[in-house]
Amino acid sequence: MPAYGARLARRPKRSVCHVRLKHGDLPDSLFDSKQLAAGVNVELEHTDDKSLAKQIAKSHLVESGDYYKYLPKFEKQLRTNWLVRHAKQKLALKPPWKLKIY
Q1: Which tens digits make up the pLDDT trace of 86-101?
Q2: What pTM, to 2 d.p., does this model score?
Q3: How far apart are CA 51 and CA 56, in angstroms?
Q4: Buried b / exposed e across 18-43, counting CB within 10 Å, b at 16+?
Q5: Cβ contacts of residue 69 below 8 Å, gap of 6+?
Q6: Where are the domains of the chain?
Q7: Cα-flanking dihedrals φ and ψ of residue 25, to 5°?
Q8: What is the Cα–Cα distance from 34 to 40, expressed in whole angstroms?
Q9: Where are the alpha helices (DSSP H) in the chain?
Q10: Tens digits of per-residue pLDDT, 13-36?
């Protein structure tokens, strides 16, 4: 078993923003207002709590400041890859984004 210091050295480094975000004290002024608003709207698809949606959006924006600008492009690529993969397999499945889960 490696020494405690060796295990600690292998841990990923976290910035001050990551630590502050974890504890919920990053002000909205640090983020692009359009990106933050777009992020909250996107994350409200997953939760009814606006403050939680904002925290999730801030988390994504800390990782990449233009996360929500490129999200539609990423989603389109995922759909295309899914359709191509399943067309090759000739499966008659509904794509996961059209499934209703209750």
Answers
A1: 666 655 566 666 655 5
A2: 0.60
A3: 9
A4: eeebeeeebeeeebeeebbebbbebb
A5: 35, 38
A6: 4-98
A7: -120, 35
A8: 10
A9: 4-10, 16-22, 33-43, 50-63, 67-89
A10: 666 666 666 656 778 888 899 999
